[in-house]
Specification:
The chain is an alpha+beta fold. It has helices at about 30-35, 55-75, 100-110, 130-135; strands spanning about 5-15, 20-25, 40-45, 80-90, 90-100, 120-125. It has one domain (about 5-125): Alpha-Beta Plaits. The mean pLDDT is about 95.
Length: about 140
């Protein structure tokens, strides 16, 4: 199976009415159908944002470096796949689907080892039918061109 690097971007609002930028990966049907990636992991980074509650340039640059490190380590053998990112309301959330949370945790530690301690929280849940992904994918109709 080939992992696509095709993404869409859409704008929405969170429950508090703050602008929310959604980035979603496309062409993941084969991965969903295998049934092997049953565990969803969410990495949340709360930050002190600008007036629109978006990350400052400095924080955004660090977040980009972290995302690149995460994707490189997580996706090297497709044991975890980055499916979406939500940014806004003074937090950024990366969503991955993984085979096991144990392996995800090991890879997370490996990817983040070069960085200073980051203000992140991890949440995991069993989601074999990719409910979160399917809900996020509905945002394609609001994609930015």
């Amino acid at each position: 199976m080939r992992l696509s690097n095709k993404w869409f971007t859409a704008l929405s609002e969170n429950e508090q009415g703050d602008m929310l930028m959604i980035r979603g990966r496309e062409e993941l049907d084969e991965f969903i159908q295998t049934g092997k990636l049953k565990e969803r992991a969410e990495i949340t980074w709360k930050y002190e944002g600008d007036v629109k509650k978006m990350p400052t340039n400095e924080v955004a640059e660090l977040m980009e470096q972290v995302e690149e490190a995460l994707d490189k380590v997580m996706e090297k053998d497709k044991l975890a796949i980055h499916t979406s990112t939500y940014t806004g309301g003074n937090e950024k959330v990366w969503v991955y689907y993984a085979r096991t949370t144990r392996v995800f945790g090991e890879r997370l530690n490996e990817a983040l080892a070069p960085f200073e301690l980051l203000p992140i929280e991890i949440y995991t849940e069993i989601d074999p039918t990719w409910d979160e992904y399917n809900e996020m994918a509905e945002m394609r109709e609001f994609r930015l061109e």
